[in-house]
Write a sequence for this structure.
């Protein structure tokens, strides 16, 4: 099987010879390739995200938002119905940093062993391809 060739890899001379229709066809093929390549999607956690033990993410900073919901980061707290709290200890690592801290993801761990399992955000995510190495400190909580 040959490796796919992407528009970004073509020399400018070759790109200039392509018609708009050719470029659109190649672009559509690239999209099909990336959408079907084995991957896992990790959604960014936001204020109100839920944990396995029924906690809710309580974001400390309201500077950065997705559709009006503040983005959760490593170090933010989760609050439980009994009033106890726990801190988010893992996130996107170097893949996505906001205001100096990695963003929290569905799959992020808390210092009490709990895990974020659901987020109101379903638009912004990190796609990790199975044949690629994980970004540094990605969901690492050691």
């Amino acid at each position: 099987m040959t490796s796919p060739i992407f528009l970004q890899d073509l020399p400018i001379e070759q790109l200039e010879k392509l018609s708009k229709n050719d470029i659109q066809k190649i672009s559509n093929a690239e999209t099909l390739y990336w959408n079907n390549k084995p991957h896992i999607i990790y959604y960014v956690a936001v204020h109100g995200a839920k944990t396995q033990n029924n906690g809710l993410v309580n974001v400390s900073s309201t500077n950065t938002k997705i559709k009006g919901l503040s983005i959760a980061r490593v170090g933010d707290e989760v609050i439980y119905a009994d009033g106890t709290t726990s801190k988010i200890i893992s996130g996107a690592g170097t893949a996505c940093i906001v205001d100096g801290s990695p963003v929290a993801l569905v799959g992020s761990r808390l210092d009490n062993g709990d895990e974020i399992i659901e987020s109101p955000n379903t638009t912004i995510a990190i796609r990790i391809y199975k044949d690629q190495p994980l970004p540094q400190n990605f969901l690492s909580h050691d």
The chain has a mean pLDDT of 93. Helices lie at 12-17, 20-36. The two ends are 39 Å apart (CA to CA). The longest helix spans residues 20-36.
